[in-house]
Specification:
Shape: elongated
Structural class: alpha/beta
Helix content: 40-55%
Strand content: 5-15%
Number of strands: 9
Order of helices and strands: HHHHHEEEEHEHEHHEHHEHEHHHHHH
Strand order of the largest sheet: 6-7-8-5-9
Radius of gyration: 25 Å
Largest sheet: 5 strands, parallel
Distance between the termini: 50 Å
Amino acid sequence: MELTLENVLPRLIRKSGLKDIELAQKIGVSKAAISQWKKGAVQHPDYNHMIKLAQALSLDTADTSLLLHSAGYKMVKEPRWSDNHPVVMVYQTVPTTTTSIRRPVDFFGRTRVLEEIFDAWNRPVFEHIAITGGKRSGKTSLLNYLRDIHHATRLRAKQYRDWLSEDLQWVYVDFRYAKTLSLEKLLRHILAELSLPAPDACDLDHFTEIIEDQLTAPAIILMDDIEFGLESEALDQRFWNTMRHLASSPAGKRIGFCITSRQAPAQLEARAAELGKPSPFFNVFERKTLGALSPEEAEEFLTHMGITDEDSIWFIDKLGTWPVVLQECCKIRLNALKYEEQNWQADCLALKETYAYLFS
């Protein structure tokens, strides 16, 4: 049986002999809240409420751990006892801030941008998207989400996944990765991602011929940090013109491009000209610029992390709603709870200097 609140809590309540209204009064919530928890309708209940619930049910160490795990919390140390009740310090794993987010379950917000992008790919002819934003603004995380959400096996309750009206093939190209800066290796990589055979001599002519003759399903090519590819001597004007040809749906094929860059498409186009490889490829994109999350999206993330309403209001008021800043704040706050530290607010405020470029 899956370890969820709806599978665990009803048994614990029956074992206690208490009625829902009695529990609600002990915890300080409504009877409806108890009912929602029992049904699993709340994706990540407040940590303090879960602790009060464990105390009201007089749970032992094992059942307290079971309850907290089923509510989405993870133990970091064994419970200690106070006044005959277990006091458990827990934490919710914070999505990494040192690398991009890999799992759709860890991705929050960006709803409007996602709607616009997927709408562009639900059309008979794909539009091409340029995602722009500063360092650590979440561009790569968004690409990972676009590629993986449709086949993800682990999602949050009510997390949406049916964005597209048909299955697409996905090609991910990371221009910071050395092999993508070799023309032949890059072409072989794209063909492999599309499950197409690569010839012994894989040049642009053979590559284009294989795409036009053998590609059967629509595909999206995701190009991350495209400015690094533009600077590569191995990727000349002919390469970028070939990409422009593919973007024009050759021979009835449906191929879409989604690039990320710190620069706008017009700046990429100008830089290509400076490098002696001007190409119309860089003027086909509709630009989507990543900014901070909306307050509602930020609140959803903080609630999921088990941050109290009071602390969430403080985070948003003092530090805004950039995802990377919120993730760092959660790490600081949860570690402060874990180690009983008091200076966490000062540590959070120091993030404004670390990420000053996001606030300018």
